[in-house]
Specification:
Helix content is 19%, strand content 24%. It is α/β, with parallel strands linked by helices.
Amino acid sequence: MQKILANRKDKKIILYHEKIKKIVITITFHYAEKKLKNLSKITNDFLLFSKKVNVFIVTNTNKKKDHRNIYKSLNRKLNIKIIVPSFLGHPYLLTWFHLDIFRKEFFSDKNISHFMYLEDDIKISKQNIFHWQENRTILRKFGLIPSFLRYEIKNNNRKEKYVVDVTKRLSLRNLPKVKISDEYCYVNLPQPYQGMYLLDRDLMKEHLNGPSSSPDFHKCNWPIRESAAQGLTFANVPKKFWSRNVVLYNIKNKCVAEHSLIHHLSNNYIKSNTPFAKIKLSDLIKKSFF
């Protein structure tokens, strides 16, 4: 597997502490009253990302009562619009409608620097955002994109995290990677689903002008609803990598770096009879050497 050395004068990852200039966030929300609690939680920190945040809630309900409930659950300081698409053709295409919003916002407002698509139960922190900015700068020349790994917890035990989307233990030796120091490297996971994506303006331009912005782009075996979250994951993938997505790995601690992790608030896979969320984060990548 490919190993690339990235030249850095410093030996540690230093997070950005600058807010994004302006961000547009779209959330697909198939309405259910019990889901409003998580919707509230994931939007609470949005104003920590940027002083200028435009939030679009794409939902399936036209009921005024439902819309009032959505607005009540969100931070009142946010600039929020609820969108109910018409003429989708199929209900499963609801998740894909966010690209119509991104396309319109991209061409109408050049001050927008970042775009984030988000499922309705994924918590993104300001540390995740700063981490993304730092790593985007480093990874740009490799054609790779900083990404995240979803986790769940059992019985509110936050010390014990379970990886949602990777269903087999991995060997560091066999993973495509970019090494930046003796302590850190970026690893390319064979199952890169993250339920969201974050792109800066350059990456969004690539996305909108390429085949990845179409539901007909079949580079993965994800179902149609989930494939809306792929962004540029499988577009223009560098040679010997499985996807564009990489997460930061702490070689010393033998674990994915904290700021590459995002919480799947529903914690529903860990309780299900599926292969998802069954591997502890600490056990995901086997102890092995370069």
